[in-house]
Amino acid sequence: MPLTPCQPGFSRGSLGVALLSLWVVAVCSAADAWEKYRVPGIAQALAKQRGVHPRLYLDAGQVGELRRNLGTTHSNLWLDFKVLADRAVSQGPPAYRERDNSSGDEQLWQREVGNALPSLALAWLLTRDQRYLESARRWSLASCRYPTWGLGRIDGMDLATGHQLYGLGLVYDWCHADLDEATRRTIREMLVRRSTAMFEAAATGKAWWRQSYLQNHLWVNVCGLAVSGMALADEVPDAPLWVGLAQEKFQLTMAALGSDGASHEGVGYWEYGVEYLLKYMSLARSQLGHDFYGSAWWRNTALYAQYLALPRQAWTRNLSVVDIADCPRGHWYGPDYLLRGLAHEYRDGHAQWLAQQVQEARVAAPGAPWLNLLWYDPRVKPQPPGDLPTLRHFDDMGIVAARSDWSGRESLLVFKCGPYLGHQAVSNFTYDAGGGHVHPDANHLVLFGAGEWLLRDDGYRAKWSGQHNTLLVDGQGQLGEGAQWFQAKQAIKAFPRILRCASTPELDQMSGDAGDAYPASLGLRRYQRHVLFLKPDVLLVCDDIVTDRPRALELRFHPESRALSRSGAASLLHGTQASLRLEPLVGTNGVEFFADDIAIEGRHGEQNVKMFTVRMAKQAAAWRSVLAFSWAGRGQPLPTVSLASPDATGQFRVGQRLVTLDWDTGQARVDSLLKP
Length: 676
Known about the structure:
Blueprint: H1 17-35, H2 40-47, H3 60-69, H4 75-91, H5 111-127, H6 130-145, H7 159-174, H8 181-204, H9 216-232, H10 239-256, H11 266-288, H12 296-307, H13 336-346, H14 349-361, H15 370-375, E1 391-394, E2 399-403, E3 412-416, H16 423-428, E4 444-449, E5 452-455, E6 471-473, E7 497-503, E8 507-513, E9 524-534, E10 538-557, E11 564-567, E12 570-574, E13 578-586, E14 592-600, E15 609-633, E16 641-643, E17 651-654, E18 657-661, E19 668-672
Antiparallel strand pairs: 1-2, 2-3, 3-4, 4-5, 6-10, 7-8, 8-9, 9-10, 10-15, 11-12, 12-13, 13-15, 14-15, 16-17, 17-18, 18-19
């Protein structure tokens, strides 16, 4: 360890006694903080593989077994992987550039350098083709020569570093015997320098993400630190410290996860985070003898990917998942290899099926394609989701996903009403443990039907409630809005919640209470939303709003299509494949209706962004509103929805069905209007 003033015999030299004393106290405090990560059990476990390479994820015997599988069970996976490895060989490592015009000081273009390194190293292990070894060497040396891994205070402290520590650590381990000594020394010295700096930052509080136990930055960075430590454990005395820090951080992360398997960061960040969690968990088991796989969150998390996947027949590379929170509509990392890892661990045929479908549709994102080769277990047979319920309530996070069926052409509704990090985390944490990518969107819903988006999310934007399908009061939205990142300090102990959730073959119903998500100054005494999904093509959104005095109330909905025409009180929107009808049925007196583009704030504060918005506005202290949505393929007849009678604010006729809502309980039922 480089700081030695705490050791006996340290000379004060000519420095002032007072200044030196203060410095010694600070250094000793830092050293004490570091020593908590010198865990004897970790050092002993790592020492068992002293001098053995490869040892991370694979040993020599496993490499031989995997080689044999490339021509049989893993042949298709190998062919797909080889295309990507060959591409990295032909392209070569990117030249250093200070700015990439998208990630600011983070220099996130370097993530792809770290991502490429394991693929090249594994291709070498499996083929002994010198092209792969030489390319792994070139990419590694390019990484080591980059003058910065992030700019300014981020240099060496964040994602560019986490990815490159991870990749260089695996190259060092997997190619150890085959690299020339000069290359090994260069990689080793870079790993030591960068790992020491990141460890010190995380151990002493300099790294902003050090306590973000529910955020992808911590997971990526300490996973990279751990791989570096495991690769160098028998050569660098302090390397087990790096692993000790990672072990503590991941133990605290696992304790913070709820039980439902859902992510507050959206599917894209779920993929990113789960990748690095699983990467570490696999090593913790093999290198440290510690098993993280037993929690309910991990047993359930493949279902999060399953239920927030769009209908299978609609998939394209940029359209395959529900984009709530800061999530794109396409995949970011995998998720084929993640699902295969979960399928292997939990003997989960549904996860295996979804991985197979993602691969066959060519919609995966190749963040770590080499993991397909390591984690695929052909003994787990793919199981289509037809035997799963069509509705799933992720009760800790407050997310409900409901679909009409599993045909691949179904309608899909997702409804959100929960605390920003989930019930368990918000109950346990008194600070923000990683909510930057959350949106202020309690009682928000999105809808996909007839092959395309009908009601949309705003995507990866600055965080404003008005960009969601929910309520504004006096022009203001929910706690946490108003900046590029969710302002979690405002919502630390706010508990919007799902009140009830039920499903029958004909009707899915869910109710959310979002009152706690709004500032007390807005005087919102009740905001309950009852959502009735009459499968497959009708949605009733029933809002019950009460305030302390008459206020400006505005319900917003954001159709995907801008092509709107009016037909009496109803509005018709025509997309590429679908038509959507929306019509206010209840609470229309004194309501102003608007449908136009509104200015919204972009991801980096851009002000020239527009979003098509349907707005219903009313000055009132109480408002019960029902808005009916129905949809069909473009050119097909739309279902008709109407009040059962002029005075029946809780009874609706949908074709030959009568839907009855109890406003007080949120319970609903469906009866046939046809005589037996």
